[in-house]
Write a structure and sequence with these properties.
- The protein is mainly β.
- It has strands spanning about 5, 10-25, 30-45, 50-60, 60-70.
- Strands 1-2-3-4-5 form a five-stranded antiparallel β-sheet, with no helix packed on it.
- A hairpin with a 2-residue loop joins strand 3 and strand 4.
Amino acid sequence: MAVSVPTPGISIEPYLSITNRWYKASGISGTTSNLGWTLGANANFGMFGVHLAYDSENYGGLIGTVGTSASVRTSR
């Protein structure tokens, strides 16, 4: 789920994703699944954008990853 926040001059879009992640190892019968979630936000300032997310999964303990990026839009 994502929601655009009405802010003048910039665009902010926070989001939350809850998923059931399935795994199947090669050569092994059966599958396992884990509950995972991602919380993040995208912010755009005209031609420049930044993105931040935290992804977590309950895999025999809580495992998490932080991701960041930036973008620049160019016109042709």
